[in-house]
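Give me structure tokens for this 456-residue protein.
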Amino acid sequence: MEKLENDGRLEPEAVSSPLQREKFNMLEHYTKIGLDALKEGGTDQARCVATRRVTREISAEAGEFSLYRTLFDDSMSFMAIDNEGRRGTLSQNSIDEDDIRKGAATCLASAKAAVPDKDWQLAPALPIQTFESGPHACDESKLFERSQELLTTIRDRFPKIMVETLTATHVSSESCANYSTGSRFFTRESLYGISIMFSGQEGLKTSSFFGSGVQTYSLDRPFIEMGSLEADLTMVSEQVDTKPMDDAFEGTVLMVPDCFGDLLETVIGTFASDSVLIEKTSVWKDKLGEPVASPALNVRIAPLHPDIVAGERFSAEGYLSEDFAFIEDGVLKQFCLSDYASRKTGLSRAPNQSMSLVVQGGDKTVESIISSIDRGILIGRVSGGQPSTNGDFSAVAKNAFLIENGKIVHALNETMINGNLADLLLNIRALSSDVVKDGGSVLPWVAFGNVLISGK
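Here you go.
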């Protein structure tokens, strides 16, 4: 196979084999049927995407292997925009030619029922693009070996852990995205994945459930060494004996990387996404180019980053994806806006539409951050509703530990945290030098000061 460029993009003719070109041609044929049907129905702009996906899955329950199966999935998606800006979309699980025509008709009917809006547009035409990434042939024996190795490692090193479910997969997909503008994107991507749901158990005592997983192109390393699997298993092992928080105080919250990633996604949804900027409810709406976080915070949304597995390569409208700085040295550099929202607001379109978060680590180890905390908590995850439009939130801290005088004292239950999302980012005390790479993001541990912590 030809060597991939850094962004996984190949020249149009650079396809791994004549057989693969034949497969792409067939997918293109299906999209042309859909495009022709949409055009004949009077649409002004249209997009059709045909995808074939094969998933090989190994499952275990209660620590024992229970299932091996192969799943085949064909799908077709349509988008139509008429000359008045009425937009319809449809997705279906069939690429039968008659079903494609029926799907196009349903999409057109959806567009006719929509409200006219001239801000729905497709990107200008681009040359044909081909993207290819990952191991297309599944090494089934190695995948099973690594899965079995993980269960054995958990039994040997984490005796308190009960693995409720383990799912190991190899997913390979091929697609053609065809636009009425003339743009065509061919994609072939494959990846391995592992996910586990587990809890700590000792006698009649149990911890909360917890989930962990990674995506990867390679099975060269044991799963336990990837992502945050080892750290998560260690954390939950120590969650069997918990104590309630008996008072309320203002202290420091240290979040594990995955929890911090969830927080950042909530921040984006609350302050930097399409709806809140179109409706002008975001407290950041006039903050572009201004500080919104500690100068220590640098957040990029980077699907082309080498540690991101099968990242986004193009947007639904037909723009090629590029990495961009969301927050740089604490300054808001770019909103996370689609092309549609960009036209609505007059603000710039985000160079990609993914959530591939890459956060620059700090200069302290996790241990040194903990040792610097007089009183606070370590949080594995949070449970709560959506914050208010101004960012105020109240949530239950799950898989949490009390920290006092620079040491982890004991596991907690029924603990609440209250605060404001915007204030949290301004009150970052430290980011760890250690980062977790799980294939979907690159994230450090983060400590926030001045958070209200209390018993539930």
